[in-house]
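=== RUN LOG ===
request id: a7f3
mode: sequence -> structure
chains: 1
length: 114
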Amino acid sequence: MELVTKPRKTTRRRNGDGTTYRHKNGWRTKITRGNQTVTAMGRSEQESRRKAKEKLAKLPVLDNSLVAESANLVFGEFITAWLTKKHSKNITDTTYRRYESLTRHHILPVTHFL
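=== RESULT ===
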């Protein structure tokens, strides 16, 4: 008589569930949130997921917002914050200087009249 094993039921994971896989004598779960990664080991899949979610909950939440209070956001404040905090890391120094100059000379003077 041949032993037939049923394949595991595969279901889609929800966002934020991470990946759980066999590792040595147990299970490992890896969850990534933004640029933070958490791993946890457990004897069962459920234990591994639970431990990883607990670790993730203890991590500080990174605030990637450009402007803290956006209720009274002015375009000039936004474009300046976006250029210095977000976009400056993705462009060369000369391009950043050009964008900053264009913003200072053309965009910001117009926003004061709006």
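=== NOTES ===
Helices lie at 45-58, 75-86, 93-111.
DSSP finds three helices and three strands in the chain.
=== END ===
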